[in-house]
Amino acid sequence: MHSTFSRPIALILLILLPLLGGCVAAVTAGAIATGSSVHDRRGFGTVVDDKRIQLGAYDEINRDKELVLKNRVMIAVYNGVMLLMGEVRTPDLKQRAEQTVTGFEGVRRIVNEIDIMEPEGFWTRRNDNKITARVKLALTDITSVPGFDATKVKVSTAHRTVYLMGLLSTEEVEIVTEIARNVPGVERVVKVFEYTEPSTSH
Length: 202
Hints:
43% of the residues lie in helices and 21% in strands. By secondary structure, the protein is of the alpha/beta class. Strands 1, 2, 3 and 4 form a four-stranded mixed beta sheet that branches. Strands 5-6-7 form a three-stranded mixed beta sheet. A hairpin with a 2-residue loop joins strand 1 and strand 2. Helix 1 crosses helix 3 (44-63).
């Protein structure tokens, strides 16, 4: 099992994150985090643990120079679910990336959505960031669901595929997914949601 940051250290990191600016972007290799946790359905401790896991997982990936320099592995964590995205050149590297981040305390499951393809360049990654911003903005227009807040959805994008995470109702998932699909530039939407009510339809 990998060693992880203690909760006090994680709390300090969360406080310092807004002050670190570009340094954080470099550490997370372009992963996009959700906004304010004020409306988050996770408990505060879970939010802290998710960030601790994400930072620890990136630290492990960064130790593997082949994965860092010749491929792109992105990591998002929500409510103990770790999502792997990006591009690697071979099936072995996809499995290697998953093995590298396996074993963190608090991770309930790993969803490996890394694509096996030639990693895309800077301008494609920049476009992915724009798509993420567009999706987040589009979600702020949802008014048909009482109590819904766009910050409840974690949005990430890799080569024009949008990944959605969050703890939502079935109705919210359907609306959020439909909006994301219709955002300009989005080619595919992958749902990694958890549901607030039992259902057998998903």
